[in-house]
Design a protein that fits this description.
This protein is an alpha+beta fold and 255 residues long. It is built from 11 helices and 10 strands. It has helices spanning 21-25, 59-65, 67-71, 73-78, 103-116, 152-160, 166-175, 177-186, 189-206, 214-224, 236-240, and strands spanning 7-8, 10-12, 37-41, 49-52, 55-58, 85-89, 135-138, 143-149, 241-246, 251-254. It has a 3-stranded antiparallel sheet. Strand 4 and strand 5 form a beta hairpin. The mean pLDDT is 91.
């Protein structure tokens, strides 16, 4: 490697993003609406732009021209493309639960959706590329997140605190939390409403201020969600998953 080149990332705008953190980080004026993510990498949806002597070039195109030069021979042989994506996130509101596929799951899922003709940017698409998604997150400020299924004893206690969820508590005792999560994902809208409306009403009236408690986050989500979207199976994440706080500088890994 004989040179260092300036690189410009790409801003990603989603409704759950904040208003000013990323703009301030980039030295730009705030106030242009939510900015959720800043990407530095070669993802085909938003490749960074490298400022070369010949002019600006997308990072993915630059690497494709000469992978050994930009990746080194070992990484060029192992990956063939730029394998990492650095994201700066500003999360102002809860966003959707995400699953991190391993390499085999990612390749199979991507191939299946390609064969079915699902557009790559369609909202119902699960696999936007064939790459695995191990993720390392480091907090820049105090940050709360959901991470993995909670121990069965914990999620059973959460379920049993809501009479409308007795069916799921029984399932959890018999088959564990993973079976409950699958049941939630497969439930129809009427069943979800029967389960969740009482949970939402209880959270609204609870007055809970403990951020480690599911009711706090259910109520926080309820205040941000449009009425038409309030019966959302993702709310079960607060009851079934670990609620964790990362202090600034702390990190967490999801394989």
């Amino acid at each position: 490697m004989s040179e260092l080149l300036p690189i410009d990332g790409q801003v990603r705008r989603y409704d759950w993003g904040g208003e000013d953190f990323i703009a301030t980080l980039l030295g730009e004026p705030a106030g242009g609406g939510p900015v959720a993510e800043y990407w530095l990498g070669a993802h085909p949806d938003s490749p960074s732009v490298v400022r070369t002597a010949a002019g600006p070039v997308p990072l993915d195109a630059l690497v494709d021209e000469d992978p050994p030069r930009w990746l080194g021979r070992r990484h060029a042989t192992a990956f063939g493309h730029w394998p990492h994506l650095l994201k700066v996130l500003d999360v102002a509101r809860p966003l959707s639960i995400q699953v991190h596929p391993d390499r085999e799951q990612a390749r199979a899922g991507f191939a299946q959706e390609e064969a079915l003709g699902v557009p790559r940017k369609a909202p119902q698409r699960n696999f936007h590329d064939p790459n695995p998604k191990p993720e390392l997150a480091v907090a820049l400020s105090p940050f709360w997140l959901l991470f993995g299924l909670a121990p069965d004893a914990v999620l059973i206690r959460h379920l049993e605190s809501h009479p409308s969820l007795t069916e799921l508590a029984v399932l959890a005792r018999a088959q564990g939390g993973a079976a409950v999560f699958r049941r939630v994902l497969e439930a129809d809208d009427a069943t979800l409403a029967a389960w969740l409306v009482p949970v939402l009403e209880a959270a609204r009236s609870s007055g809970v201020t403990d951020r480690a408690a599911p009711a706090f986050w259910v109520n926080r989500w309820l205040g941000a969600a449009p009425p038409a979207e309030r019966v959302d199976r993702g709310v079960f994440g607060f009851l079934l998953m670990n609620i964790l706080e990362l202090a600034p500088g702390a990190g967490i890994f999801q394989g």
